[in-house]
Amino acid sequence: MKRIIQVILIVMCLASWGFADDIFISAVMDDNQILTILSNVPKKKFSRREFAALEKTAEELVKEKRLNIAKEIYLRLLGTSPSKKRRFNFNMALGDIEMASGYPQRAMQYYNVAQTLYPKNVHALIQEGDLLIAANILDLAQENFQKVLKLDKNSDIAKKRLGDIFFKQNMYVKALEYYQRVRRNAFDRDLLINMLLCYRRLGQPQKVLDLADLHLEFSNEAYVHFIVGLAYFDLENFTQAKQELLLSANLDPENFVPYLYLAQVALRENDLQGAKGFLAKAQNISHSSVASIDFMFAQIYYKQGMLASAKKYAQSAIVKAQDNQSFIAAVCRKLIELIDRGG
What we know:
Shape: elongated
Order of helices and strands: HHHHHHHHHHHHHHHHHHHH
Mean pLDDT: 88
Distance between the termini: 87 Å
CATH architecture of the domain at 187-276: Alpha Horseshoe
Structural class: mainly alpha
Low-confidence stretches: 1-24
């Protein structure tokens, strides 16, 4: 207790002298000590210097990831009826703390209060919009980011988010309308990948290749090489498809999916042994848990006339098939029927 009293006296002196008390408090005191001080201070308005010291202390604590105690300080400061601007800042800070702590619903409550205080604040609209996207409430998220664009027509964040909203709804043309308006210096990996996927799903593989060539700064991204490989596959340029898919596999050795498509390339080139080799690699990485691998093995063994092996893999694929893989299960059942009838 004596130690706490000494610390309180030092902090009060520092506050009165106007030194860097916020850094001192967060460095010298643990969370329980700060809580003790807060609980012992009468619930009245702090002096201007005490208020400023606590405000900066909370900011320092957030930087140090000491979120619970930072939250307590912000709540205490809110209880003193601060100015409208400070109420906005504290609610935004509390929303950020709740987000970082994994409580998006609580965060939304604070962001809502902040947005009510300043309805045209872009930062509040963006934070709230991001939460709405995460909750898949896309119509309200769209409204938020449309408001942002009205307030700031150059907001690349708003353009990206609106593109993401339409991308999530498989509205690829509409998504590209917003993605294409993002300025070059605001491009990032996720934006590029979504645009590449839009073009491929719209059946425009050449545009996939053209866009990838414009953004060579992402040339070491495994998923970019993967999508480019698929575009070459769509164009039936199997040599380039194989090259890109191998690059993707090498950059992301824990991902078995490129090997599935490499097997498809080998099948298109009538290289059944090569296809089996790629499937074996996919099987090893996935620990033999993927229905599509067994499905492709069944097809290959059937083509080779090895009906017993084909049936074994078809049966295995049926067992492993998920609800969204009913096509695989259905085809494998037909294959088994065909084998049982004599091939």
